[in-house]
Amino acid sequence: MEFTTSHNRLLRVIIILCICSSLTLANGPGHRSSVIERKIDSLLSMMTLEEKVGQLVQVSGNFNDGSGRKTLTPEHIEMIRQGRVGSFLNVFGATATREIQTIAIEESRLKIPLLFGFDVIHGYLTTFPIPLAEASTWDPALIEKAERVAAVEATAAGIHWTFAPMVDIARDPRWGRIAEGAGEDPYLGSCVAAARVRGFQGEDLAAESSLMACAKHFAGYGGAEGGRDYNTADISERTLREVYLPPFRAAVDAGAGTLMSSFNEISGIPSTANVKLITNTLRGEWGFDGFVVSDWNSVGELINHGVATDPAEAAVLGLKAGVDMDMESYCYQETLATVVHDGRVSESELNEAVRRILQAKFRLGLFDNPYKNCDVKREQQDILTAEHRRMAREVAQHSIVLLKNEGHVLPLRKDLKSVAVIGPLADDAATPLGPWKQNGRPEDVVSVLSGIKAKLSDGTSVFHAEGCEVEGSSKPAIEEAAEIAKKVDAVIVVVGETADMSGEGASRSSLNLPGDQEELVKAMLAIGKPLVVVLMNGRPLAIPWIAANVPAIVETWFLGVECGNAVADVLFGDVNPSGKLPVTFPRAVGQLPVYYNHKNTGRPADDHQRNTSRYIDLPSTPLYPFGYGLSYTSISYSQFQLGSTTMEPGDSVVVSVVVKNTGNCQGEEVVQLYIRDEVGSVTRPVKELKAFQRISLAPGQSRQVSFTLTPEHLKFYDRSMRWSVEPGKFKVYVGPNSAEGLEGEFTYSSS
Ligand code: GLC
Question: Is the dihedral of CA 595, 600, 601, 603 positive or negative?
């Protein structure tokens, strides 16, 4: 039936009256949610089965219509008119989203607004450092500000919902997606997850610049065997709950509007079909009331997993597990009406999924104003602003980790007569955007070379040579670079990985520097000038030769648009580096898995005892430990004190140390507190991060840093999988990283 304009107007009035009739006066969150529930009830009562299924369908847009414009296919537009799609991803821009939303509001029967999702992983157009770099700041408040900027920009471009934060714990750097998360530790990962959700969503989802978050990939994705993406994860319930789930719980407790189910299986059950994980734990135990979207085609991939014979079975498994929206598998679109008709899924189960999605749209304010993010003026004025770039530079500065500085090679003097900036990544403006650049543009990036040139006066000659490619052999270029390096006062070599060597589908079997880059570094070292290696990479690298032989090494990850300026700020001393590693650096790929919070085993590693848990051809320690990072100043720890050597239920123990800046420049330090439960009903990690504080100290300044430990910090899943604390001795460590620090001990008794 063709709707005329007058029909449309009349229908619109009827729909509004039906929805309004369900209204009660809303005078607070509780009332507001009951008002929303009544609106949803009213809408559900008007929806056909096909329209209900439509809300559960997410389709990727962003198709070129030949004119270079990103738009939708005619089939997409017809789906919108018929109410057979509820959300698009990869559609962005105030104009494009307004055009598409207008079809839904003006030409569909029930005028339910569409939801536009996009991967805003570390910035929209102002690209920030990759999440692993941001985690190196150990500064949740700073990370929250970065995500706030991302939200302002993304919502100015018509986007309602980001598929972030990625909160997967990653202990295997072969896995390319380690770049997207916060590293190996559940506590740091939880602090970062909550900060990202707060930053994206702000105080009220209905606000103009609030971007709905999506904690992903639920769950256990980072536990892929061999670090091979999408691979099997065989994770015990205890490890799942103590290592992989805490950041998701933190994201949910911070109010994340959605979660994304992951591709992988956990011990035989694909997460996208895991009732226990999604319905029982996420919803039942944690009280999550948002909605769950599948990962791209992860519903359809239940067939590859071998737990579904066809798309209908896959759709039944996904929906019954609690996956509300199907991203790009078409299983829901093509089979859900059928499986409801044949009773494999009840209409009430379907309604619950629809309800959760409509609830998100109401909470976002899209029913009140479906065009709230479609303001071209805001898009022009709120994106890639000077303030946003300043913010990106500040985050990049704090993301840099000083790994070595023998003989105080760093900071370099600004009055050098000449400096050579060598390496395949030295003037690369694409790589600093990282593997999830999305709309990030190389032309907006300050390369390392450009940043150094901008930093130095005309009195310093800056030379550049690539020296080699990232991959492939290029010996002659190394000799050319060496000739340049011989003539200068200092040499900076920028090496690492290209952006596509990490991220999704980019697992590496080696952690070495690709290509001839290590040869290039050796050639530079042989020249005998002051040498600094700048690493640009998306994962920990096994660089034992460089670590042993090069005097100065900084880890910069992928730093985004302000890469070059931040690197120059640090190399030439305007900023004292303060980053700490959120992930362990192994000595070799063969040392994996290596992470700080490991178990002691019955034969703890002892490099002097053969029959212990070690490799005979490698020291047992990592190349760089979790939490490690140096400074241009020196920091000392002293006066470790425990407020008590006993703790009982309801008690707390105050742990304090004095931290002093014993150097001659201002410095920031991340003071870290770890515990060890010495004896439990099950084996316990040799260390667990439980708290950290970032402090700033002037030269010579001392500060007492205190932490308060309670029984809650001591809990774990005991032999019966009860979350509890057991009596016994606990060691406490406070220091600059997971391998050093002052220690004490207290006893917890439950009597
Ligand atoms: C990808 C990723 C997921 C992303 C989604 C949409 O396959 O696994 O992280 O959000 O598809 O791009």
Answer: positive
Residue nearest to atom 6 of ligand 1 (CA): 296
Distance of alpha carbon 116 from the chain centroid: 20
Paired tokens of 58: 């997410």
Query: Is 3.30.230.10 the CATH number for 635-748?
Result: no
Q: 559 with 577: CB under 8 angstroms?
A: no
List residues bridging with 733 in a β-sheet: 674, 743
Instruction: Name which of 568, 581, 566, 576 is nearest 128 in CA terms.
Output: 566
* C-alpha to C-alpha distance for 169 and 313, rounded to whole angstroms: 31
Two domains, one topology: 51-379 and 392-591: no
Positive or negative torsion for Cα 511, 567, 400, 630: positive
The size of the chain, in residues, is: 751
Q: How far is the CA of 111 from the centre of ligand 1 (A)?
A: 28
What are 480's two structure tokens? 């050319």
Q: Reply yes or no: is the peptide bond before residue 170 cis, omega within 30 of 0.
A: no
Question: Contact, 121 vs 438, CB < 8 A?
Answer: yes
- Per-residue pLDDT tens for 709-750? 999 999 999 999 999 999 999 999 999 999 999 999 999 999
For residue 624, the CA-to-ligand 1 centroid distance in Å is 31
How high is the pLDDT of residue 478? 94
Q: What is the token pair recorded at 280? A: 């029982």
| Alpha helices, H only, 328-426 | 331-341, 347-363, 376-381, 386-399
CA dist., res. 16 & res. 46, Å (int) = 12
Q: How far apart are the first and last CA of the chain?
A: 75
Helix (H) / strand (E) element for 14: namely helix 5-21
Please report, rounded to a whole number, the percentage of residues in the chain having pLDDT higher than 90.
93
Q: Is the CB of 119 under 6 A from ligand 1?
A: yes
Determine the Cα–Cα distance for residues 568 and 457; give it in Å rounded to an integer.
Answer: 13
Residue type at 593? P
Q: Reduced to 3 DSSP states, what percent helix, strand and coil does the chain have, rounded to the nearest 5? A: 35, 20, 45
Among 3.40.50.1970, 2.40.480.10, 3.40.50.12780, 3.20.20.300, name the CATH number for the domain at 51-379: 3.20.20.300
Name residue, tokens 């990370």.
Answer: 143
Predicted confidence at residue 68, as pLDDT, reads: 60
Beta-sheet strands, E only, within 561-683:
635-642, 646-647, 653-661, 667-677
Task: Return the half-sphere exposure (C-beta side, CA atoms, 13 A cut-off) of residue 352.
Answer: 13
CATH class of 392-591: alpha beta
Cα separations in angstroms, 515 against 109, 427, 543: 58, 18, 13
The per-residue pLDDT for 411 is: 98
Query: Are 125 and 92 within 8 A, CB to CB?
Result: no
Q: Where do the DSSP E strands lie in 61-124?
A: 63-64, 70-71, 87-89, 115-118
User: Does ligand 1 have an atom closer than 6 angstroms to the CB of 296?
Assistant: yes
For ligand 1, atom 8, the nearest C-alpha belongs to 295
Query: Domain map of the chain by residue range?
Result: 51-379, 392-591, 635-748
Relative to the CA of 163, which ligand 1 atom is closest? Answer: 10
Residues 299-343: tens digit of each pLDDT = 999 999 999 999 999 999 999 999 999 999 999 999 999 999 999
The H or E element that residue 35 is part of is: helix 29-46
Tally: H helices and E strands in the chain: 22, 28
